[in-house]
Design brief:
This protein is of the alpha+beta class. It has helices at 53-66, 93-104, 124-144; strands at 24-31, 37-44, 75-80, 83-90, 111-118. Strand 1 (24-31) and strand 2 form a beta hairpin. The chain is elongated.
Length: 150
């Protein structure tokens, strides 16, 4: 028993992402173990849209700005021959990974070099111990300056 496919999507439900690159569509008819038949379409030979470095820089800045997990002022971007270079500092690893993921799949990107450094925020107990040590050192220094005059 076959189930009719939806005809509302037209002949190409997934249009090519790049109007410049040649795209071929292949359709495979598959019958699953439970008897369901399906037509599975795939696109092949999709090449990335060529972009110059300035256009790629603008697009990557937009992608980083729109990504919710990338800190707004934590990442700097450079583009050299289609390679995006990310620099900066973030507080958490997921922010570093989100920045790379935001730019990796843009059209025209050849490679991504992620030089973002993860610096975790200071923990409260570490700050408390540092302050206590500083106060103790200051008190010892002041105490050593006290002299008894007979």
């Amino acid at each position: 028993m076959s189930t009719p496919m939806s005809q509302g999507l037209g002949p190409s439900p997934f249009p090519p992402l790049s109007s410049v690159a040649p795209v071929t569509r292949t359709v495979t008819r598959t019958v699953f173990d439970n008897g369901v038949e399906a037509e599975i379409g795939t696109f092949a030979d999709r090449r990335p849209l060529p972009r110059d470095d300035q256009e790629l820089l603008t697009e990557s800045l937009r992608a980083l700005r729109e990504s919710p997990n990338v800190p707004p002022a934590g990442v700097a971007v450079r583009v050299i021959d289609g390679t995006i270079i990310l620099d900066g500092r973030t507080a958490f690893y997921y922010e570093r990974a989100a920045a790379e993921c935001a730019v990796r799949f843009l059209d025209g990107v050849r490679a991504v070099e992620n030089h973002i450094i993860v610096e975790p925020p200071a923990l409260a107990h570490v700050v408390r111990l540092s302050i206590a040590d500083a106060l103790l050192r200051t008190a010892m220094n002041k105490a050593s300056q006290i002299a008894c005059i007979p």
